[in-house]
Amino acid sequence: MSEISRDDVAHLARLARLSLSEEELNEYAAQIDGIVDHVAAIGEVDTANVEPLSHPTQNTVMREDVVIPTLTAEQALDQAPAQDKQRFQVPQILAD
């Protein structure tokens, strides 16, 4: 256990200019202690034989792209209150 104390949390709260009650100090000390323990446990994982990835999805199998029918411009604009050049026309909200 990392043993983050209530005094450590009180010190951090003072630095951050937070006003915390005694109950909050005790609660946050336990929560922060748990977080630090979880991070320490992750640091203990043996990654010596793990190849680094250039991207998180480098080894992810993805499905093939499949073209499927979609709406035509006419179908999409069928119920539009206003349209212009095959686009939805909306009121301007920003100045030029």
TrEMBL record:
<comment type="subunit">
    <text>Heterotrimer of A, B and C subunits.</text>
</comment>
<dbReference type="Pfam" id="PF02686">
    <property type="entry name" value="GatC"/>
</dbReference>
<dbReference type="InterPro" id="IPR036113">
    <property type="entry name" value="Asp/Glu-ADT_sf_sub_c"/>
</dbReference>
<protein>
    <recommendedName>
        <fullName>Aspartyl/glutamyl-tRNA(Asn/Gln) amidotransferase subunit C</fullName>
        <ecNumber>6.3.5.-</ecNumber>
    </recommendedName>
</protein>
<comment type="similarity">
    <text>Belongs to the GatC family.</text>
</comment>
<comment type="function">
    <text>Allows the formation of correctly charged Asn-tRNA(Asn) or Gln-tRNA(Gln) through the transamidation of misacylated Asp-tRNA(Asn) or Glu-tRNA(Gln) in organisms which lack either or both of asparaginyl-tRNA or glutaminyl-tRNA synthetases. The reaction takes place in the presence of glutamine and ATP through an activated phospho-Asp-tRNA(Asn) or phospho-Glu-tRNA(Gln).</text>
</comment>
<keyword id="KW-0648">Protein biosynthesis</keyword>
<keyword id="KW-0067">ATP-binding</keyword>
<keyword id="KW-0547">Nucleotide-binding</keyword>
<dbReference type="InterPro" id="IPR003837">
    <property type="entry name" value="GatC"/>
</dbReference>
<keyword id="KW-0436">Ligase</keyword>
